[in-house]
Sequence to fold (173 residues):
Amino acid sequence: MNKERIIKFLKEMSPYIIIVIFVILLKSFIITPIRVNGASMDDTLKDKDIMILDKTKYRYNKIKRFDIVVVDIGTEKIIKRVIGLPGESIEYEHNILYVNGKRVEENFNHKKTADFSIEELGVKKIPKDMYLVMGDNRPNSLDSRIIGLIPKKEILGKTSLTIFPPNRLGIKK
Fold:
């Protein structure tokens, strides 16, 4: 009789067990919510916005300039914008981005960027599988200018969809 109860219980619970396993796999390998901490991405993102992190994006696609990414820096996860790609020389002069000496228009709002050169990080060009990331709130951002270039393996994925608070719901670029 005890064996029959266990079988009946498992049959009744199996849909819930499957749902729990599915959610765990989904969160572990595909998408997961992530919270913006701090003001380093103002005005694009706000402190405490909750976004969806797409962990699969860069398995099939290249990281692109101006993508908003989540970076694992060991003690925390930070959200930044990709500015420099492998093989590039990056410089800001008078709040203007230069890539390999050519002016590049930034298609998003950001605070004033102090003059900066990739050479300040000890390299002339960004090495293979490394990226320069910056916050949109340039005067108040812990980014590559301080923590250095970011290895590709530390970029957890792309984020652009804000899901909370409801008044900020939507795609951020």
